[in-house]
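Repro:
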Amino acid sequence: MIELLVDSLFDAGKILFKCIKECIPKNENEKTKEEWLEFLTSIEITNKAKQKIEYCKTVDNTIIFRVPHGISVNDIKPKEIYFKDFLNATRLEYEIKNNWLSMKIYNEFLPEKVNFELLEPDRKGLKVNLGKSYDGLATIDFNITPHVLLAGATNSGKSVCTHVMLVQLYNNYPDLRFYLADMKKVELLNYRNLNNTVKYVDTLEGVTEVVDELLEECDRRYELLGKEGCKKLETYNKKVSKYRRLKPIVFVVEECVRLISDKELQKKLAELLFIARACGIYIILTIQRPTKACLSPEIKSSLGNIIGLKTVNKRNSECICDDNRLKDLRGFGHGWVWNDLGETEFQGYYIDESDIDKYLKGL
C-alpha cells in the first residue's frame, strides 16, 4: 500500500514538473538538438572528410560545439549571418580551441548616434577614440599600429570620422606636426591655417612634394637615431635633451583615389609607409573603395589600422576587409576597426561643422 502511494506521488511529481517546465518561457537562443542538427546540416560546414560540426550544449549565452579536424574560424565566418538569424542574435563572439567551438551570443544594439566628446588624452600612447563599442570605446593607438586606412561609401560617415580623429590629434597632442593633402579641396580647410599644420596641399603635384619631403625627413631622422644607437623615435627622444627631440608627424591624404594616375607617386607612398613607422611619421589615407587599381597591395599591406564603414555591396566590402560584413552596416558612422588589438564593431562619434570650429578655436 505504501509502495503504491509512493509511486503515485512520484508520477504526480513528474507530471507537475513537466507542466511547470512547459509554462516557463523558452529562451529564444535555446534550440533542441534536433533543431541544431537540421540547421548545421543546412549550412554545410564540413571538412574534407565531410564531417560536420556537432552541437553539444548551451551554458547561459554560450553554445559549445564539437568541431572535427580541418575546420577553422575562417570556415565559420562566412556562415555567421545564418547563425545570427537562427539564434536571433545581434552579435557573436567565437573561437575554436582543441576541437571545441565556443560561441557567445549577444542581443544588444549599438546606439544609432553618439555625439562627440573630447576626452583627456592618454599620455602613454598616441590615441584617438572612434566612438562607442559594445565594451566601451573603439580606439586606435598609433604607437602600437601606426597607419590608418579609412574606407566606406557615400553617407557611411567617412568624412565625419576623419574630423573626429583630427580634432583629437590637434587638441590632445600639441607636439604633433601635420601635413594635409586635401584632394577634395574642401574637406580639410578647417585645419589649413592652424599653427601645427606644416603644409596643406590639394593637387597631385603638391602630394608628390610632401611625399618627397617626408622621405627625406625619414632619412634624416634615421641618421640621428643611428648616431644615438636608437631604433625608435620614443627611445631617441628620451635619450637626448628637449631641444634635440623630434616632433611626431601625421600625414593625411583625403580621397587618395586621386593618386591613381601617378604610379611613381604610389611607389614612393608605399616606401614612405614602410619606413616611416619607427621614426614617428604616421599616415592616414581615406578612400571609398580600395581596389588594386586605386591602392596598390604594397600600400594596403602597410596600413595596420583598417576602419571599414558601410559599403554598397559585398564586393566593395571585401576590397576593404576581405569580409562581406560591411555591406550590412546601417551607415552614418556604423563600422568596424581592425588592428593589432583585434577587431571591434562601433558606432562612430558625430561631430558637425560648428563643433569642429569650436574645438579648433585658438589652436
